[in-house]
Structure formats: structure tokens, C-alpha cells
Amino acid sequence: MPITFDHVTYEYPTDGTPVPAVKDVSLEIADGSFVCVLGENGSGKSTLAKLMNGLLVPTDGDVRVDGASTNTEDEDALFAIRKKVGMVFQNPDNQMIASIIEDEIAFGPENLGVPREEIEERITYALEAVGMTQPRHHTPEKLSGGQKQRIAIASVLAMRPSTLVLDESTAMLDPKGRREVMEVIRELNRQGITIVLITHYMEETVRADRVIVMSEGAVVMDGTPAEIFGDTEAVRRYHLELPISDYLAEKLREAGLSLPHKIYDEKSLAEEICRSK
Amino acid sequence: MSIEVKDLTYTYSPNTPYAATALRGVSLHIEEGEYVGIIGKTGSGKSTFIQHLNALIRLQSGEIKVYDIDLNAKKPDLKKLRGTVGMVMQYPEYQLFDETVEKDVSYGPRNLGLSEEEIRERVREAIELVGLDYEEVRDRSPFELSGGQKRRVAIAGVIAMRPRILVLDEPIAGLDPRGKQEILALIKKLKNAYSPTVIVVSHDMDSVAENCDKVALFADGEIARFASPREIFYDDELLSRTEMDCPSVVKVVKELERLGKSLPTRPVTKAELVAALTVGEGV
Amino acid sequence: MNNIVFGQYYPSGSVVHRLDPRVKLVMVLLYIVTIFFVVDYAMYGALFLFVLAVALLSKVPLRILFRTVRTIVILVLITAVINLFFTQGEEMLFSWKFIHIYKEGVERAIKLALRLILLMLFPSLLTLTTTPMELTDAIESLLSPLKIIKVPVHAIALIMSIALRMIPILMEETNKIILAQKARGADFDTGGALKKAKAMIPVLVPLFVGAFRRADELALAMDARCYSSVAQRTKYKVMHLAVRDLIASLFCLAVFSLVFLNKYLWHFDEMILSLFG
Asked: What is the pTM of this model?
């Protein structure tokens, strides 16, 4: 069941004239898709994310998850939405409540009133899903950033969400940690979980179904990665960058090589270069 | 010579069960004017090493000399050292504290004991160098700026001390593409302005390959190799032993070689790769 | 750093670790009360042996246990010295100018020092063998009768556990900020008290700003995982009293009652002395 935005505007409460962080956005996140949201800092990406599970409620328009509006006074209805749309944040240290891995993962299910025996199963499932083999009664304190972030993902998975929204969850990680987390979310997507990944790393969009570009609160581009990065003019306009392989492809085309317009990684670029001879 | 490190060894919490050796016999020689990249896995000793350069860590064993400041002296001139080596820590925006941008940037120069006039002069110059409008931001609170601006104010706070050596610990971590490009361009600009020697700790191999003259690869508290990016990133054995990634450009070259196409040169920057691929193509 | 006052959790999986944290907490409280009823060396010796026995059972290296005493060495010395010099008695041992040391003073100094050390050791064993999380659970469970009079017991326990989790993170952050400001030429070591206090402003401000930022993010993460202070939660970890808890309690109570019997009925040290005398 999809998440739908119907002419959504959000203004942060301020003293002066409110500046909308999200302006008249309408979109639908299809079930099982892998969607990346790009845009420079302050473009409204994070606000968009928080609108998806009712952490923020639109000042205008409506966000619906499985047909249920996030604009509700009823806590149970809101929790039903947050249970479906799980959220992982940027800093793993700032989203952990407990000092023991299994307690951390149990926190969500406990809040939902899941029976004890089932929490046990869910912890096992969640740890397996993120590939963590550390003893679960240990503290997450000494883990690496990537491992901590995987625990954060597991804590959300334990609520059995159908969608996972990751708000720059790879931004603070080193390359190894980033790779670990990307592998986990790609695998979760293969298992049918919808992924909304907010990121600054263009390479992470390579295997996405869809890329949404935001600028000044509005959705300015929406398409497949190849469509988005094929439009180098727009990429520049919205202060994105081409994934490095695409940048190289563009330069090589300028220098006269005939390379097709599509999204590349290093391997496919090398193959096309060989083919172009 | 601007930095000379000999046989540096450091252990955290020595003589306790938590003892952890972070550096083992590290020696490094950095010439004035070099742009040095420090790479290595998390926990390989990079941060511990650069903290030594500013005497933020007590020297346990080994020798460090920064220009004529001898850190092995009984009472090294720390004020002079910190005016010589400017250290921009990770996420430097989290160290801003004063009411206004101007006051915050003047903290460093004031600690150096400069005259008010000199401080004002340096602060203005530093703020303008990092690409902010002095008149516009000087009286604003640093806390109400955007993330990228905050980072630039924090960097201004260091360069207002006019260090001859600029050390930056992951200066582009967590920034958006535009912010990254701006900071990388800023570092080049600073290198030309006051700080001929630049040392950057980074996990971003692409920017290291693009910008650095030399790369020190740390592994397990030792320098596995100190050489040009070309020598490091084409040393497959070294990279796999130290679990390091290579820059995208080098990855493309290695893929090409695997497909049977070898290049006349060993490019590490994007421009070099494009040149290597188009030379003799009759374009 | 990770050893603020008491010992940090030392996982060895011993039987002491597996005891119900509520039992351990109650026994420690009783022990503290008991200490104040110790009158003679025999009982100090007995309690010392008791602590030693528990320590051996817990498989916590004695070296680590005794390190916790280091943090109060100065307190012990000052207390001992004050009592040594200022206790008046009958039997003068030493006199020089205005200094008079009596036998009673020496005895009191020794006993107070022993009392302080014993006061430190056993509670340290509690924190060495019980995770902060278990402790908060125990406190929550022991306080739960107060729910009837509308005390927000769970919220209190949650605040405690979050505080426990945040302490090491904030310590590390403090350290980072100190280094950053030192790099900017800050001098925290010279000057009078006022100058030193002023020098801390560039550390404290970013620390507070950071703590608030973390608190904000944590609150958001808790909301996203459906935390509600009023809704009915389940608890993943349920504490069950086992036979070993009963045995441990009986053992402790037996030892503690020795102290009371000694004070009010028999006097062991006289008995021991009479055996030899």
C-alpha cells in the first residue's frame, strides 16, 4: 500500500513570516520500490521524510499511508502509520535508547504492546535481517558506526514496517559502514520492503528505481536515475553532482567517444569504453 | 622541512586492561608546500597522529619537530605551535560557542595574544577568505547559520590564526555535493594564502586522488606507505592488505585492464583518465 | 573515563551476574544499613570476607574491584586524619606541642576508613555485575507499587536509562570539544579560579548546544518508534525470581544478621580474644 502526498505544504512555525520547507508536493511512493531523494541542504528532504510517518503533519494538503491520513488526533491511528513507515535517522548515537542491543530492538515492539514471546522472535528476525552476529546482550557502545546504524535499522525492522525511510542514514559513516548499510537496505528491498533513501551520495542512487530531486521545498525532478543524471544541465542547476562514472562518461563523450546515455558504475563504464572502440 | 616525526608510539590508557596502542613507531617527513592526504581504516591511528602535531596529546615516545618548535623540549612553546599548526577537527561546527560570528572567529587570535587591531584585521580577512560576507555575518549568531556556513565559520576561526600548516580531519564529512566542492576549493585557496602545507585526513578516496601530492596510508597504527597517490592506488597488494578502496578513476582503469585494454599512463585524477583515453584517438 | 565512581559492568557471566537485579539491589541496600551497625574488627573482617567471597563468585578480577576504592582514597585519608587528630580519649599515645593522639583516635580512624572502603566495595560489585539497564529495570520493578499513586515509574526508569546511555557519549564529546578549543589556543590550566571558569565557556556552550540537539533527535526517534508515556506497553524482559536468588538472599541475610547479633547480643571479638587470652 502506497504513501501518497496530495498537495502537501509544510511551514515550520516561526515568529516572522513562515517560509515553507515543503511546497505543494504531490507524489506517490509505490509499494516495494526503491526511491532516492536528492537535493542540497535545506531543500526540504528531511521535512519530506518526517511528513511520511506523521512526525510532522502538513500545514496544507494531506499525507496518506494506506489510505489513512497522518493528520489525526488519534494516537492509535498515528502509531499504526508509524509502525508501517519506519524511520532511521542520521546519527546512530542519537537514536538509541537502550544500552543493550536486544533491549534497543525490543523498544519499538514494547511500545506497540507486542507479546513477549513474539518480541523474542522479532529480535532474532531483525538481527538476522541486518546481518548482525554480535551477541545480542552486548552494549552497542563499542560497535563501529556502520554496525550501530544496522542496529538502528534492526530496531525499526522489529516493528515489521512495510516502508523504511532513511534520513541521511549513511552521511556520518565511513566507506565501509556505508557499504554495509547499503547492502542491508538493498537486500531488504529485494525482500519487498519499500525504501525511501535520503542521501547526498550520488553513487547510492545507482540501483534505485526512482530518484526525486528537491529544491527549495518543491519536487523539481522525478524519474529513473538515468533520466535524472542524463540531464546534466539540471543536475548542475540543483547543485547535485553526477556520480563519478557518469561525470567521466560525459567528459569522454565531450572528447569524442561515443558512449550511450545511461547510469554507470565503474564496471559498466569500462565495458562501454571498450565497446566504443 | 615543516614537520618531522620520528618513531612515534602512543598507547591509550597504558598499564590498564583497556590499554590500546594507537601508533607504533610512526615516522613521517612533510615538506613545506605539500598537500598530504592521510587515509586508513577507522581506528588505524590517523586521528591520534594528527592530534600529536598540535600537542593535543602528550608525547609518550618518539620525536616531533614542527619547523623550529621541538615538542620534545621540556616546555615546548604551545602558543607558537598552535599558531603554526591550525587544526580543523571533524564536524568543526560543533565547537562554535560565541554570540556572534566575529567574536567566535576572534577566539583563536585572541588566545595567541595579538593586538585588538590585528585581531579585527585577521578576523575580517578569515571570514572573507571562507567566502562569507563579513559585514553581513559578523554580528549574526553562528547558531542561526546553515550547516555549510557554520562549517566555514569554524574553519575561519582556525585560519584567523594564520597557521603555516593546516590540518583538517575529514573536512567534507556529512556535507552535500555543493558544500564538498566549496570546502575543497577553499582548502586550495587557503593553501595559496597562508598555509602552504595542508594535511587532510579523509575517507573520500576520490578527493584524495584529485587533490593530494602525497598520501600517508595508515594501517594498525603504522604508516603502511607514504608515497604519491599514483604509487599508493596502483599498489593492489597494499590496498587489499590494508582494506582500502581505490578512487573511482582507478577502479575504471582496473576494469579496463581486466577487459584487456591497457592505458599508456596510470591516471588517478579524472582529467588524467580522460586524457589517457582520448590521446591518439584523433579527436 | 568509563570508571566514574563505581565499577563499570564487567561481563563474566557468573552466577552473581545472573541473579535477579532486584535481589542484588535490595541486598546492597541492606548491606549499607548493616555497615553502620558494625562495632568491632571481627565484624569488619567478617564483612570483608563476605565481599571477597561474592567477588570470587562473580569472577570479577579483584584488581578491578579494588580499583573502585582508588576513587575515594582521598576521602578515606581525610576522614582518617581528622579522626586521628581530633578524637579525644583517655589513653594518650603520642603528644607533641598541640598534637595529641589518643588510642581511641587511632581506633576510630581505622574503623572509619574500613567502613568507607567496605561501603565502596559491595555497591561496586553490584554495578560490576549488573548492567545499568538491569538496574533501571530493577528500580522500575521495585518502585512499581507507586504506580497506584500515579507516580510515572516507567518514565522515571526510562529517563535514568537514557541518562546512563548518554553519559559516555557526552564525556567523549566534552573531550573532543576541549581538544578543538585547545587547538585554537585555549588555555585551561593557568590562572585563578575565575579565569579558569571563564575558560570553560567555549567548552560548555557547545556541549549544551550539542546535548539539546541530541535530545531533540532522540525524542524524534522515540516518537518514530511509537513511544507513548501513557499507552500500555509490554515488557520484553521479565524478571523471575529463581532458586539461586533465594539462596543468595538467605546467605546475605545470614551474614548481615551476624552483625546485628554481634552488636546487640554477643561480642565476637571478646570471644575470640578470650579464646587466646
From this structure: 0.85
